[in-house]
Design brief:
With about 575 residues, this protein is mainly alpha-helical. The protein has five domains: about 120 residues, Rossmann fold, CATH 3.40.50.300; about 90 residues; about 160 residues; about 60 residues, no CATH class; about 90 residues, Tetratricopeptide repeat domain (Serine Threonine Protein Phosphatase 5, Tetratricopeptide repeat). Helices cover about 60% and strands about 5% of the residues. It has 26 helices and five strands. The strands form two sheets. The chain has a three-stranded parallel β-sheet, sandwiched between helices. The longest helix has 27 residues. The N and C termini lie far apart (about 80 Å).
Length: about 575
């Protein structure tokens, strides 16, 4: 966030203002803090620092810890003005004994920087000042000034604001990106294209040699520096799998309730890293999953804000990207599968949504699809994409629904094939989106294009003779029947949505689906479905209509056949 840069500016200003002693301490390790204090004690000639330690008896043999304690005592009692900067505290507990005391003269100040968010940091009279990212205006100003100073103002273009947004207005990332653009002579638009390429690595796009602002670390390393420490804290072994799961969801946030789902707790159980093979730990439940969130929050890797409602759990987009890059290839499908199952549970439990919640759910599905690409289809998780698309239509967002379904149908055709039932279903939803957007000609064009393909698919799946429809053993195999049923189910759903449940073509499709179920041996389902079709035809067409009579006769034959089969079964079993 640039907290070290701000602290450095504050320290320089203190020198300008005449503060007599300014000490900069790298506080990432306690040993370094002690060493800095010991050197400072000798530099200011703290009384007693060069006297022999009575325990050892030798001249100048006082330990670094003793010298550091003497220095802290000196800070408390001196009348001189001083500023101690503790940069990048990683362990607030370990720092407690080494925190400078209040100045008796009131002329001493302590400034500390950290990514941690522990409650301990706000105790002892300390005030916490949150450092956010740049605002959009600040990010734009930084890019303009930085590129102009490098005589590279020509690299600015209309994509500058979008680039800053993708980088989350993070000062560290903008610094590296600007240097990369200068070094490679690429515009904002070209850098944005390279950055959004999922095959590119952060360490290449934000490299160490682009560290013109003196941050001193690669971005991925800086963002994930605390993860190893968090992994060994309670709840032990859950920080890494939890952050991996959060990294494939929307950085702008998802509901806390997702972490109580069975999919998430099962995943955390399966991927927990044991601190010791000899220590048995209880199964992870919702409480442990929430504890893992709080742990990541304390280490500044995510934000867990209960007051943010549907976007309670958030993380920076670069943290998410860096985490995904370090997920092993054999683990990623399990992470994505968990995200799919958890969102599915959340969707089913929470439906119907209000507009805000629906928007959050769609954003999480969109992000999951964007960062996993074809993998979402490979693990059969693309039903989420259809749900999200249906909600765009249901909420009257036809302008957004049309391009959404255009992309979805193109992907389905590429991965599943033009004649796959799910492709037909996606194309019918595209037609619905066209209808909702008052683009009737485009809708009918989509449906007309599918007629030839559907005829071929249905012809390949249908029995050779009409009489074969009533035979339990059918000539074209189970695989063809399953595809046939899937196609009919999608067609029925489409007709019910577009034409209504009482339309004659909807009732005809219902009867055909009943026949298909009868062929697979699902006699109960087939009978119930055909009974609905008969009732619907009686209501719409009348009891004497030929279609009603034909469906009614078939239903009676099926009932007679089921009774005969039941009697044969009981006779063969010797049941009176």
């Amino acid at each position: 966030m640039g907290k070290t840069q701000l602290a450095a500016a504050y320290a320089h200003q203190a020198l300008v203002d005449g503060v007599e002693l300014v000490i900069w301490v790298d506080a990432s390790e306690t040993e370094q803090v002690i060493a800095h204090y010991a050197r400072a004690a000798r530099h200011v000639q703290t009384p007693g620092v060069d006297e022999p330690d009575e325990r050892d008896g030798g001249p100048g043999s006082r330990s670094a810890e003793d010298a550091a304690r003497l220095f802290l005592q000196w800070l408390a009692t001196t009348s001189r003005s001083w500023l101690v900067v503790l940069d990048d505290i990683t362990d607030p507990d370990a720092m407690q004994p080494w925190w400078p005391p209040p100045s008796a003269s009131g002329r001493g100040r302590v400034l500390a920087t950290t990514r941690r968010q522990d409650a301990l940091l706000s105790g002892g009279g300390r005030a916490v000042v949150a450092i956010g990212t740049y605002s959009a205006a600040e990010a734009d100003a930084y890019l303009r000034e930085r590129l102009a100073a490098a005589h590279a103002a020509h690299l600015l273009d209309g994509k500058a604001a979008e680039l800053a947004d993708v980088l989350g207005h993070l000062p560290l990332a903008l610094s590296h990106a600007a240097a990369y653009m200068v070094n490679e002579d690429v515009t904002c638009a070209e850098y944005l294209r390279r950055f959004t390429d999922s095959a590119a690595r952060l360490d290449d796009l934000l490299p160490r040699h682009a560290d013109t602002e003196g941050y001193g670390r690669q971005v991925a390393t800086a963002l994930l520096l605390s993860l190893d420490v968090a992994q060994v804290c309670e709840p032990v072994g859950l920080a890494v799998p939890a952050l991996r799961l959060a990294s494939v969801l929307d950085p702008a946030g998802h509901p806390r309730s997702l972490w109580s789902s069975g999919a998430v707790t099962h995943y955390l159980n399966s991927h927990r890293t044991a601190s010791s093979p000899d220590i048995a730990r209880p199964d992870v439940g919702p409480a442990e999953a929430q504890a893992a969130l709080r742990l990541l929050h304390r280490y500044g890797l995510i934000v867990d804000d209960a007051h943010a409602d549907y976007r309670a759990v958030r993380l920076h987009a670069l943290t998410a990207r860096a985490t995904r890059e370090y997920i092993p290839g054999d683990v990623l499908p399990r992470v994505v599968r968990t995200a799919v199952d958890a969102l599915t549970e959340l969707w089913e439990d929470s439906y119907p949504f209000d507009r805000t919640e629906a928007g959050v759910m769609r954003a999480n599905v969109d992000n999951l699809a964007a960062c996993t690409e074809d993998l979402l289809w490979e693990i059969d998780g693309h039903h989420l994409l259809r749900w999200a698309g249906h909600h765009l239509i249901d909420y009257g967002l036809a302008t957004a629904a049309v391009p959404y379904w255009q992309r979805l149908t193109a992907t389905s055709e590429r991965l599943l094939g033009r004649t796959h039932p799910k492709t037909f279903s996606a194309r019918r939803d595209l037609a619905v989106a066209y209808f909702k957007a008052n683009r009737d000609k485009d809708a009918f064009a989509v449906l007309r294009e599918d007629f030839a393909y559907q005829d071929q698919t249905l012809a390949a799946s249908q029995p050779a003779t009409p009489q074969a429809c009533d035979r339990y053993s059918h000539p074209y195999g189970k695989t063809g029947t399953k595809e046939f049923i899937a196609l009919l189910e999608d067609t029925l759903a489409f007709r019910e949505r577009l034409l209504g449940s009482d339309d004659p073509t909807t009732l005809a499709c219902q009867a055909n689906l009943a026949i298909a179920h009868w062929q697979t041996g699902e006699f109960g389902k087939a009978t119930r479905l055909l009974k609905r079709a008969v009732t619907g035809r009686e209501r719409v067409l009348g009891a004497c209509h030929p279609d009603t009579v034909a469906a009614s006769d078939r239903l009676q034959r099926w009932r007679d056949e089921r009774r005969k089969r039941w009697r044969r079964h009981h006779r063969s079993a010797g049941i009176p």
